[in-house]
Amino acid sequence: MKEKRFGIDIDGTVTCPTSLVPFINDAFSLNITLEDIKKYDLSEALNIPPDKMRDWFDKTEPEIYASSPLAEGAGAVLSKWQHQFHLLFISARRQHLFDITETWFKDKSIHYDHIELIGSHNKLEAAKQYEVDIFFEDKHDNAVMLAEELCIPVILFNTPYNQDPIPKNVIRVNNWYEADSWVNQWCKTKEIVPLART
Q1: Does residue 196 fall inside a structural domain?
Q2: Quick one: CA torsion of 38, 71, 166, 3, rounded to 10 degrees?
């Protein structure tokens, strides 16, 4: 019986956060790695004019999403969780990208109970609507807002662009195996605890 409802971001969370990097390097004649992206806003992080970055992203978005690799451990952990939890994917992607998104999930054999493309980074209303018990995210301010407004644990996947301080109920993990370890502990105790490092 599935009881817990998991809200899960897609980009940089289920997909590898490096997905954008080859496309950025090719389009802007750069030679960066993920470590060079210290801010979530790519225009600010790479000192590229916002309009130029937006135009490029709008054109390239479908190709990026169609070819994004899975984040480390995402396939194995989500495959395990599909039998235990409701998996509700809530993304800032826009609705016209639904078919590409759904095809990617099928190609990667990722089970989903629902995919919600809200076209905005404000996931609070969707998280409330679907009554999620825990959220998985890579965007720092999203993680903090969801944790504080909904009083739920939020798993924040560690990246160079989300290093600001976090409140107690936002838990940093380096990969999906660490997320799974924390969820196992949380399901047993229902307490917000720091991830035990081995």
Answers
A1: no
A2: 160
